[in-house]
Amino acid sequence: MTPYRPIQQLAAALPLLAVLVGCVTTESQDYHGRGSVTIAAPKAPSRWEAPAIERASVVVDAVTGQRISFAEMLDGLRPADVVFVGESHNDESTHHAELAIYEGLLERHRGRVVLALEMFERDVQPVLDMYLAGDIPESEFLDRARVWSQYQAAYRPLVETARQDGHPVVASNIPRELARKISRGGIEILATLDPETRSHAPTELFANTAEYWERVDNAIRGHVGRMRMSESDDGRLTSTQTLWDNTMGESCAMALDSFPRHAVVHINGAFHSQNFDGTVRQFLLRKPGASVKTVDIRPVRSPSSVPPASSSTADYIVYVEARASHAFSGVYSITLDRDLEYRLHVPESASLSNPAPLLVWFVEEGLTAKDGMALWRDRIGTEVAIAVIEPPYRATQPDLSEGGQWFWPDSFSGDVGSIVSATDRIWAYLARTHPIDPDRVCIAGEGNGAVLAAATSVFGARIQPTAIAFDPARYAALKDVPLPLGGGTLSDRRLTVFGDEAAAEWWTSELDSYRGLGMAAEFRHSGSLVQSRDAAQEGMLRDALGLDPDRTTDASDLVAISMPSDSPRARHWSRLYALRYEATTGRSVRLVDMGL
After folding, report:
1. Interior CA angle at 571 toward 568 and 576, to 5°?
2. How many CB atoms are closer than 10 A to CB 138?
3. Which segments within 322-433 are labelled E, that is strand?
4. Residue 558 β-bridge partners
5. What pTM did the predictor assign?
6. Are 50 and 96 in contact (CB under 8 A)?
7. From residue 323, how far is each of 229, 320, 372, 410 by CA, in Å?
8. What is the pLDDT of residues 471-503, one digit of tens each?
């Protein structure tokens, strides 16, 4: 079965002819002295061009954890029969890196490279071949090939590079409608297909691994209705995910057969080739003796600041500068850098020989970093360094005061991810430049800030904190964020969540997931606190930071102080008054609403 036909190679190329589209040309004698030939002059970069990929990326050898040059990575990819390149579908820099990988391997293989693309489905291979051969115009190709919406910006440069020099391109994926039909009707549907339609599906279906499905379920863990965790791997044999991986893996195997002495570069979504699983495994089941290399391209804001580290996800990791995204649901985006401010207090007693522990505090929504510092500096500031992070969004509160907001519902993952990354960098900066003990860190917060404290304890890359989340609010979207899988991944972290009865079931399930990754995690009911809320908070933070216990108040001599309203600002200033009253009288205070 050959679902695509070989592309005719260019023959009898002029020995010294170099052609670059759009270049200015000059006249020169050829090496036999017979007249002149056209030689390309270097093209001056236009002012709107993106920086060269070598300047906008950092390459890490994932086996050794060492940084290497882009050229060294290409040399390492050279011996492979198939190179799987995992991408983020909408990132501009990712596609620049892919083009550089393809062009670099074309050079190293003297043109004997097959480009295979997840983005084209097998049934459009004849259309793709006709376009590459010059038999149809691009307008007809675009109309008939069902190209992705971002084709012009993302994949056209790859296809045009192949077309210019006559290199083959393989449509590697299963047609979407056929995949839907098999997924709904089961494997028996394959026997009912006509020969041509049957050739667009894999000849044989192999199950994916349990580890693969664990990653799938983790990626969609917040969408319970779509999760199929109780289903066996064989039961998922006709799922769309399995059909994609089988078809793409088989297409790469067939490309090696159809194009002898060629290497294959397959471009696919990163998930399909991470951990050498999915499409990579499906290919090796069909070509067990073949040599494979994988590249995982990851867009980040600052590639140069990513710490080198070994990884089991790929042979090479390319961190590219995230600058712009192609259209997604009709919306484009540009990546912006912005400052995340924070307030810092370091006790006078701290020194290089006597570094202070660090409390990182996330305020309740509606407050500011100044409010958070006022809450903690007078209570523990003589013993502890305090960093209070400013919520990145300003919002007018119901009482017309200006307060902060941590995230928006439609951008939760991005907002939380940015703050977690920034907290990692705040901790690293303070450890480098201030008398801070990097191993005595407590991250805590309340309300929406508690969600950030919990998220940092789970998703922080380098910081290894003890974290306490007091009465987290609007936390359900945490389940939409995939966990960092791997046995013992979170074994150096500890998280305690305080919440009411309504939150208990959700957090118990979520913390079970964290414990499965090695984290020491527990849920405690807020109603179990016998002291006032503030006294209990301070006691737990002191314990987490290794401080002596706090002064005690007389819980039996309880004073009720009414708050004028239940706004964040009213609660904050009422708390400050209550704390001062407790410190002065030694009596325990409980704040209540005026209506209670």
Report:
1. 125
2. 13
3. 324-328, 331-334, 342-345, 356-362, 385-389, 393-396, 402-405
4. 588
5. 0.81
6. yes
7. 36, 9, 34, 21
8. 999 999 999 899 988 767 788 899 999 999 999
